[in-house]
């Protein structure tokens, strides 16, 4: 176990997209990072990029873990504490999306969406809360504007993100009594690989993954007396319809 004076962050779903953008931002700001993902191959590929940035002060580790499995989350926490000695920051970012009319949505699609986006955030918090209490840490969830705005074909995704937003706000009220900050970040359109998409030049108007990383860094720097508990984020200049 390495005893480190730097803060240590766990990011679920950190191999690409928003999670990867947050990992890059934290590393650049002197914070050790542990990313998790469901597939060892993508975890390894992300680590090559994250640890190739030339920052000798901090580094990233990667762990194959599934947020839908509580034991998997506890094992990831054990490995992080073994490597760094602590966990100060947790970003529950892992998410999936299945979209379509509610009468065509399959049971497996519903279950995967709720178990990943909502139950996974609870398992992540449950597995890390002792570390967060001990270190007066910060717990983030990455929700969505879909967590307050419903839309057609979004029944499972809306349900998971409405639930995640409510879960995070209730957790904030519980955990601030222990010196833990809790925030949910709710992005609108983000240029990522979410739902099988590939970002392109046509997505330049959208929020970029590094923008969410910058928000996390700014929140971490905020004075301890102040807590922005729910942050909605939108593209400033979406294309005209």
UniProtKB/TrEMBL annotation:
Residue ranges annotated for the Ketoreductase domain, each copy included: 7-194
InterPro entries assigned: KR_dom, Sc_DH/Rdtase_CS, SDR_fam
One GO MF term attached to the UniProt entry: oxidoreductase activity
UniProt keyword terms in alphabetical order: Aromatic hydrocarbons catabolism, NAD, Oxidoreductase
A Pfam family this chain is assigned to: adh_short
NCBIfam families: PRK07326.1
Membership in a protein family: Belongs to the short-chain dehydrogenases/reductases (SDR) family.
Record's protein name: SDR family oxidoreductase
Protein source organism: Halomarinibacterium sedimenti
